[in-house]
Design goal:
This protein is an alpha/beta fold. The chain has helices at about 15-35, 35-40, 45-65, 80-85, 90-95, 105-110, 160-170, 185-190, 205-215, 235-245, 255-265, 285-290, 305-315, 335-345, 360-370, 380-410; strands at about 115, 130-135, 135-140, 145, 175, 195-200, 220-225, 295-300, 320, 350-355, 375, 425. It folds into 2 domains: about 10-65; about 90-425, TIM Barrel. Bound molecules: flavin mononucleotide.
C-alpha cells in the first residue's frame, strides 16, 4: 500500500517515530494559523509567512493522498484526483462538467440510493458466471466502455490505450465519432470488433462516409447518439472556463471538426464549421441510416417510454438509456430512474443498455435487475486513462468487475439470468 494520509485526528496519527518533527511542525503551524490572537501578535510579514506555510502543508497533504500507482486504487473514485492533477485544466473541465446547475449529473449518482437490494441467502454461487451476449457480441462481463470523444486530450495514447486495456480485460469498446485515433488503428489494437458511435451531420455525405468507414472496419453495431442538439449553450462551467483560457484545441489535440475535415478533404468541401453545431436529427434521419447500413442500429440517449416504443416501431435493434452522463439537458432525470419505463415499453423485444453515473458493481447489479442487458461507463475509465494510461483503464475495469462479482455472490445470483427485479426494491419518490 503506498497511500499516505495526513490525519486531522491525533488518535489516528501514525506513530511519531515515523513522522515526528514533520507532524509537530504542521500541528504548530495550524495552531498559530487558527489563532487570531497569536497571528495578530506577529508582524504582518511573519503572519503572512505562517499562512503561506500552512497553505503549502495543506497542498502537500492533498498531493500525498493521491494514488502513487494504479494498483493501489481501492475504488474507481480514487482515479479522479490523479486525473485532475495530470490534466490541463481545460481538459479536466471538459471531462468532469455537467450542464447548467448539474442537477442531472448529481441525480445520476443520488438515484442509486433509491434502489435497494433484496439479497437472497443460501444459494450456491461457486460457479459465478458474469458473461452475456448483446446483439451478437459476446461480453465476458456486462460492463462496456462508453463512447467518449478526443481521448488524446486525456492521455497521449488516447483511444489506443483504451483499446489495449479493453483487449487485455476483454471488454467491449464503443468508439466515438470524435475519436482522436483512426478507427482502423483502434480496431486493430482491440483485436476484436468494436462498436462505432455516430453523431450525424446535416450534410449526409459526412454521415454516409462515417458509416462506410465503420462497416469496412468490421463494426457490427452503430450507436446513434440523439441527445446532443449540438448547440452546447448549457455548458456553463466550460463557457466560464473558456473566458479565461481560450487556447485552440489543436494546440494539444485534434478537434472533431479537424478530424472530419481530414476525412472529407477528398470531397473538396470545407465542413469544419458544419459539424455538430448544425446537427438536425429526426426520425427521417434514423430511417435513412437504418436503410443505408447493414450494421445493427442502437439509439443512445433514450429516456422515455414514448421514445422507446418509437424505437421498436422504427426497427431499431437496441437502445441505450442515457443522459450523456449529465451532459445533455439538465432534466434532473437520472438514467437508473428512467430505465424501468424503457424496459417496460420495449418489453424484451430489443436489448436495453444504460449509462450515466455508474461507479460501483452494485450500480451495475441494480441496472441488470431492473432489466438492462449491460451497462456502459464513461468518466471512470477516462479518469483511469488520464491517471495511468492503459494500466489505469485496466484497473478501473478490474475493480468494477470485482465489485460486480462480489455483489452477485452476496445477492445469491450465480449468473446474469438469475438477477431479476425481485432483487431490487425501488423507493417511492418523495
Ligand atoms: C469527456 C466525455 C466525452 C464524451 N463524448 C461522447 C461522444 O463523443 N459520444 C457519445 O455518444 N457520448 C459521449 N459521452 C457520453 C458517454 O458516452 C456516456 O454517455 C457518459 O459518459 C456516461 O456517464 P458517466 O460518465 O457518468 O459514466 C462523453 C462523455 C464524457 C465524460
Amino acid at each position: 500500500m503506498r497511500w499516505s494520509f495526513e490525519s486531522q485526528n491525533s488518535a489516528e496519527l501514525p506513530c511519531q517515530g515515523a513522522e515526528g518533527p514533520g507532524i509537530a511542525r504542521r500541528e504548530f503551524l495550524r495552531f498559530v494559523a487558527g489563532s487570531p490572537l497569536l497571528l495578530s501578535a506577529l508582524s504582518a510579514a511573519a503572519a503572512e509567512t505562517v499562512l503561506e506555510a500552512v497553505s503549502q502543508v495543506g497542498s502537500s497533504a492533498q498531493e500525498s493522498r493521491l494514488l502513487a500507482a494504479a494498483a493501489d486504487a481501492i475504488n474507481v473514485f480514487d482515479f479522479e484526483a490523479v486525473a485532475k492533477r495530470n490534466l490541463d485544466p481545460a481538459h479536466y473541465t471538459y471531462l468532469s462538467m455537467g450542464v447548467h446547475d448539474e442537477f442531472t449529473l448529481r441525480a445520476n449518482r443520488d438515484a442509486f440510493g433509491q434502489v435497494k437490494l433484496r439479497p437472497r441467502r443460501l444459494v450456491d454461487v461457486r460457479d459465478l458466471d458474469t458473461s452475456t451476449e448483446v446483439l451478437g457480441t459476446e461480453l465476458s462481463c456486462p460492463i462496456i466502455l462508453a463512447p467518449a470523444g478526443a481521448q488524446k486530450a486525456f492521455h497521449p495514447q488516447g483511444e489506443l490505450a483504451v483499446a489495449r486495456a479493453a483487449s487485455r480485460m476483454d471488454h467491449l469498446q464503443i468508439l466515438s465519432t470524435g475519436t482522436s485515433v483512426r478507427i482502423q488503428e483502434v480496431a486493430a489494437a482491440r483485436g476484436a470488433p468494436i462498436w462505432f458511435q455516430l453523431y450525424t451531420s446535416r450534410h449526409w455525405p459526412i454521415s454516409w462516409l462515417q458509416l462506410r468507414e465503420a462497416e469496412d472496419t468490421g463494426c457490427p453495431v452503430v450507436v446513434l447518439t440523439v441527445d446532443q442538439t449540438g448547440l452546447g449553450r448549457n455548458r456553463d462551467s466550460l463557457h466560464r472556463y473558456r473566458r479565461r483560457h481560450n487556447a485552440e484545441c489543436q494546440v494539444c489535440h485534434q478537434s472533431l471538426g479537424e478530424k472530419i475535415q481530414r476525412g472529407t478533404d477528398a470531397l473538396g468541401l470545407d465542413l469544419r464549421d458544419l459539424i455538430q453545431d448544425s446537427m438536425i436529427l429526426d426520425w427521417n434521419v434514423v430511417d435513412r441510416i437504418r436503410k443505408e447500413t447493414s450494421m445493427k442500429l442502437v439509439i443512445k440517449g433514450i429516456l422515455t417510454h414514448e421514445d422507446a416504443r418509437l424505437c421498436v416501431e422504427h426497427g431499431i435493434d437496441g437502445v441505450v438509456v442515457s443522459n450523456h452522463g449529465g451532459r445533455a439537458e439538465d432534466s434532473g432525470l437520472s438514467s437508473i430512474e428512467a430505465l424501468p419505463e424503457v424496459v417496460a415499453a420495449t418489453n424484451g423485444r430489443i436489448p436495453v443498455l444504460v449509462d450515466s453515473g455508474f461507479r460501483r458493481g452494485t450500480d451495475v447489479f441494480k441496472a441488470i435487475a431492473l432489466g438492462a442487458s449491460a451497462v456502459c461507463i464513461g468518466r471512470p475509465y477516462l479518469w483511469g486513462l488520464a491517471a495511468f494510461g492503459q494500466e489505469g483503464v485496466e484497473v478501473v475495469l478490474a475493480i468494477l468487475r470485482r465489485e460486480f462479482e462480489t455483489i452477485m455472490t452476496e445477492m445469491g445470483t450465480p449468473n446474469l439470468s438469475a438477477i431479476t427485479p425481485a432483487h431490487v426494491r425501488v423507493a417511492e419518490a418523495t
